[in-house]
Specification:
The chain has 146 residues and is mostly helical. Helix content is 77%, strand content 0%. It contains 5 helices and no strands. The chain has helices spanning 2-23, 31-46, 50-72, 78-99, 102-130. α2 runs antiparallel to α3 (50-72) and α3 (50-72) packs antiparallel against α4. The radius of gyration is 21 Å and the shape is elongated. The mean pLDDT is 85.
């Protein structure tokens, strides 16, 4: 009898613990930290000089703050938020074009394309694991600020 109760307690406890991470939302890092991290990644990946890195950081910080305000605005619909986030991404890319050389911008676009493809693969795998059809992947949700 004790063995049965112990086994039952372990099964229930394991089930509760296994589902716990799914229920917790991942907290967003502060805009300043995201901007600094992405500027450093771009410096390494694209070979930016210090002046470019500073400008990229400032661009990223401004966009990250705007995106946070959009995400936190409860009066907007999901579609409105997505449209505004997409507009911010386009504005960021236009500002990047002014700061980066043509070669650096081409590398940046290739890097972004690669990240989008990886994200779409992850989404497809997640849908397959759930047994769902999987909807076509749209523009990337801004997981990481660039």
């Amino acid at each position: 009898m004790k063995t049965l109760i112990l086994a039952l307690a372990m099964v229930v406890g394991g089930t509760v613990m296994a589902q716990r991470p799914q229920q917790q939302k991942r907290e967003r890092k502060p805009a300043e930290e995201r901007a600094a991290n992405s500027a450093q990644k771009m410096k390494t990946k694209l070979g930016l000089d210090d002046a470019q890195t500073t400008k990229i950081h400032d661009i990223n910080l401004g966009i990250a703050q705007k995106n946070d305000a959009i995400r936190d605005n409860t009066s907007l619909t999901r579609e409105q938020k997505m449209t505004q986030l997409r507009d911010n991404q386009n504005a960021r890319n236009a500002q990047y074009k002014e700061v980066l050389t043509a070669d650096q911008y081409a590398k940046y676009e290739a890097w972004e394309k690669e990240k989008r493809e990886k994200m779409q693969e992850k989404r497809a795998e997640k849908q397959d694991a759930k047994g769902g059809k999987g909807k076509p992947a749209g523009p990337p949700a801004e997981e990481e600020e660039l």
